[in-house]
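User: My collaborator sent over this chain with a note saying "see what the structure looks like." That's all I know about it. Can you take a look?
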Amino acid sequence: MQNTAADISLLTKRQPTARAGAPALIALPNLQGFAKLVGRELSQARRFGTRPAVLLIDVEVREPLGAPVQQAAQAEALLAAFGARLRGRVRSSDVVARIGAQRFGVLLQNVERANVYAIQQRLQQVLSGAYEVAPRPLYANVLSGIAKCECPRIGGSELTRAAEVALSHGACAEPKPARQPPVPALTSARC
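Assistant: Without extra context I'll predict from the sequence alone. Here is the result:
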């Protein structure tokens, strides 16, 4: 019986170490900083012959009845939880950054053959909704735009701008008929 207890204690001690090895969320003050990061990652992707995509996510923090959150500390707690959930939902090779106050950026590595529509939609589904923030749950409304690198000569600024355009089109799109699910905004960055 003592060996079992010792084995369990070893497992619980190792778990935080494994989590600590995961890539951290990068904090950037603005979109230009993210574009520079994307540019560096694009250079590396060119060396390996891969094509990444950029996903931008705007988060609106709401009360249960739809009103904006009045307490900044609660909104910040939700955004921290949102960032942790986002980091946990993408691959460890993907780069996740918090851009300013309520925007997140993800550089999805090596998505040349991947369905970026499906990735965007899946992330939007798992990230939207309720977050348990004391003393009551708060809700995250998520709007996203994605741009896939279609050309080896594109720069970080252009790819980030294409994702921002897709994000703005998602915000301005007219509602679809009830029978059709909404289509996520996607922009392909071409030369």
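A starting point for your reply to your collaborator: DSSP finds five helices and seven strands in the chain.
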